[in-house]
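Morning, I've got a small favour to ask if you have a moment. It would help a lot if you went through both lines with me. Thanks so much in advance, here it is.

***
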Amino acid sequence: MAERQNIPLKYLQQILRELKDAGYLESRKGPGGGYVLARKPEEITLAEVVRAMDGPIAAVSCVSVFSYQECGCPDPENCTLRQTFKEVHRSTLAVLDRTTFADLCAP
Protein backbone atom coordinates (compact mmCIF):
# COMPACT_ATOMS: atom_id res chain seq x y z
CA MET A 1 0.00 0.00 0.00
CA ALA A 2 2.83 2.40 0.84
CA GLU A 3 4.43 1.78 -2.54
CA ARG A 4 1.12 2.05 -4.41
CA GLN A 5 0.30 5.36 -2.72
CA ASN A 6 3.91 6.56 -2.85
CA ILE A 7 4.17 7.29 0.89
CA PRO A 8 6.88 6.17 3.32
CA LEU A 9 6.16 2.87 5.08
CA LYS A 10 6.77 4.35 8.56
CA TYR A 11 4.24 7.08 7.86
CA LEU A 12 1.66 4.55 6.66
CA GLN A 13 2.24 2.45 9.77
CA GLN A 14 1.62 5.51 11.94
CA ILE A 15 -1.64 6.27 10.10
CA LEU A 16 -2.80 2.65 10.43
CA ARG A 17 -2.07 2.65 14.18
CA GLU A 18 -4.04 5.87 14.62
CA LEU A 19 -6.97 4.45 12.66
CA LYS A 20 -6.83 1.29 14.77
CA ASP A 21 -6.73 3.30 18.01
CA ALA A 22 -9.74 5.32 16.79
CA GLY A 23 -11.68 2.10 16.13
CA TYR A 24 -11.73 2.15 12.33
CA LEU A 25 -9.36 -0.77 11.86
CA GLU A 26 -8.72 -4.12 13.48
CA SER A 27 -5.41 -5.91 13.27
CA ARG A 28 -4.92 -9.60 12.67
CA LYS A 29 -1.74 -11.52 13.36
CA GLY A 30 -0.31 -14.50 11.58
CA PRO A 31 -0.35 -15.64 7.97
CA GLY A 32 -2.70 -13.48 5.95
CA GLY A 33 -2.77 -11.01 8.82
CA GLY A 34 -2.72 -7.25 8.64
CA TYR A 35 -5.37 -4.62 9.02
CA VAL A 36 -9.06 -4.84 8.14
CA LEU A 37 -11.85 -2.31 8.49
CA ALA A 38 -13.75 -2.60 11.77
CA ARG A 39 -16.99 -1.55 10.04
CA LYS A 40 -18.38 -1.78 6.55
CA PRO A 41 -16.76 0.78 4.22
CA GLU A 42 -20.22 2.21 3.47
CA GLU A 43 -20.56 3.11 7.15
CA ILE A 44 -17.33 5.10 7.51
CA THR A 45 -17.41 8.71 6.33
CA LEU A 46 -14.45 10.91 5.63
CA ALA A 47 -15.80 13.51 8.05
CA GLU A 48 -15.57 11.19 11.04
CA VAL A 49 -12.10 9.95 10.08
CA VAL A 50 -10.77 13.47 9.52
CA ARG A 51 -12.09 14.49 12.94
CA ALA A 52 -10.52 11.43 14.58
CA MET A 53 -7.17 11.99 12.90
CA ASP A 54 -6.90 15.80 12.73
CA GLY A 55 -9.50 17.21 15.10
CA PRO A 56 -12.08 19.84 14.14
CA ILE A 57 -12.80 20.32 10.45
CA ALA A 58 -13.54 24.04 10.73
CA ALA A 59 -10.75 26.35 9.61
CA VAL A 60 -11.58 28.77 12.43
CA SER A 61 -12.87 27.85 15.88
CA CYS A 62 -15.80 30.26 15.85
CA VAL A 63 -17.61 28.20 13.19
CA SER A 64 -16.82 24.74 14.57
CA VAL A 65 -19.77 22.59 15.58
CA PHE A 66 -17.91 20.29 17.98
CA SER A 67 -15.07 22.59 19.11
CA TYR A 68 -16.64 26.05 19.08
CA GLN A 69 -14.62 28.80 20.70
CA GLU A 70 -15.22 32.52 20.56
CA CYS A 71 -12.70 34.30 18.38
CA GLY A 72 -12.88 37.66 20.10
CA CYS A 73 -14.74 39.38 17.30
CA PRO A 74 -16.81 42.28 18.71
CA ASP A 75 -19.86 41.34 16.59
CA PRO A 76 -19.64 37.65 15.59
CA GLU A 77 -23.17 37.48 14.17
CA ASN A 78 -22.38 40.18 11.62
CA CYS A 79 -18.74 39.30 10.97
CA THR A 80 -18.34 38.82 7.22
CA LEU A 81 -15.17 36.78 7.66
CA ARG A 82 -16.98 34.41 10.02
CA GLN A 83 -19.89 34.11 7.60
CA THR A 84 -17.48 33.25 4.79
CA PHE A 85 -15.79 30.56 6.88
CA LYS A 86 -19.21 29.21 7.89
CA GLU A 87 -20.00 28.74 4.21
CA VAL A 88 -16.63 27.04 3.62
CA HIS A 89 -17.28 24.79 6.63
CA ARG A 90 -20.78 23.82 5.43
CA SER A 91 -19.49 23.06 1.94
CA THR A 92 -16.59 21.01 3.23
CA LEU A 93 -18.83 19.02 5.56
CA ALA A 94 -21.32 18.39 2.78
CA VAL A 95 -18.60 16.62 0.80
CA LEU A 96 -16.92 14.84 3.72
CA ASP A 97 -20.19 13.68 5.30
CA ARG A 98 -21.46 12.09 2.11
CA THR A 99 -18.15 10.48 1.07
CA THR A 100 -17.56 7.02 2.50
CA PHE A 101 -14.62 4.65 2.31
CA ALA A 102 -16.67 2.64 -0.19
CA ASP A 103 -16.90 5.73 -2.41
CA LEU A 104 -13.13 6.08 -2.34
CA CYS A 105 -12.70 2.52 -3.59
CA ALA A 106 -15.25 2.77 -6.40
CA PRO A 107 -13.84 2.79 -9.94
